[in-house]
Design goal:
The chain has 6 helices and 9 strands. It is of the alpha/beta class. The strands form 3 sheets. Strands 2-1-3-7-4 form a 5-stranded mixed beta sheet, sandwiched between helices. Helix 3 crosses helix 6. The longest helix has 20 residues. The radius of gyration is 16 Å and the shape is globular.
Length: 209
């Protein structure tokens, strides 16, 4: 079994992205009977999807688990749905890392309005909560790079009718980030790494059944 895990580079003027640290940490861990590959994605509307699709085509994973940062959330949140839109408000505090701020643009003009995750998100959340990791299913991945990545991967799977399952998980800021902004909700990096381990193991078990 092969699983591809993605995270993102830093963005928005921050020097830290906890998902970059997650993919670096998880790359050295092992799961029985599983080959794990990680990739760090650029925070750019077009390049993020191009980069992960290139990895999917080369690696042909059984599952893709993409990870991203959602400032302000207090829990680990597997996403249920991705919508077919790129939209960064004109007054948003930051653009993507190339300064791009699209408004009301479709990700795929010929694609469905929305696509649902194929990951076992309910099982993930139940398992996370059992392990006392704060988690819930999110019904909005936003309209920024994370949603763009989730939709792009699911749309690629749809168009090519491949058996890979895929989805997206948002993580809150890390406590390291909260040092600079004490009002920012945060979780310890180790807690988020524990969450990713649980998410991967739950996906493995779901694929085996």
């Amino acid at each position: 079994m092969k699983i591809l895990i993605s995270g993102f580079e830093v963005f928005g003027g921050s020097t830290i992205n906890p998902t970059e640290k997650l993919v670096k940490a998880i790359a050295s861990e092992t799961f029985a009977g599983v080959e794990l590959k990680t990739v760090l994605l650029p925070v750019n509307y077009d390049e993020c999807v191009e980069a992960i699709i290139k990895e999917i085509e080369a690696y042909q994973p059984d599952a893709v688990i993409s990870c991203g940062l959602y400032h302000g959330r207090t829990s680990v949140t597997p996403e249920r749905i991705a919508v077919n839109v790129k939209d960064t408000a004109a007054d948003a505090p930051y653009a993507d890392n190339k300064g791009v701020k699209p408004t009301d643009e479709p990700i795929n003009p010929d694609g469905p309005d929305a696509l649902f995750t194929q990951l076992p998100v309910r099982k993930m959340v139940n398992r996370l909560n059992e392990e006392e990791v704060p988690a819930y299913i999110s019904n909005t991945a936003g309209t920024f790079i994370c949603n763009n990545t989730m939709y792009g991967v699911l749309d690629y799977i749809r168009k090519n009718n491949i058996s890979t399952i895929a989805g997206f998980v948002h993580f809150p800021a890390s406590t390291e980030m909260a040092v600079e902004n004490p009002l920012l909700p945060a979780l310890p990096q180790e807690t988020m790494l524990q969450a990713l381990r649980i998410i991967i193991q739950t996906t493995i078990e779901d694929l085996q059944n």
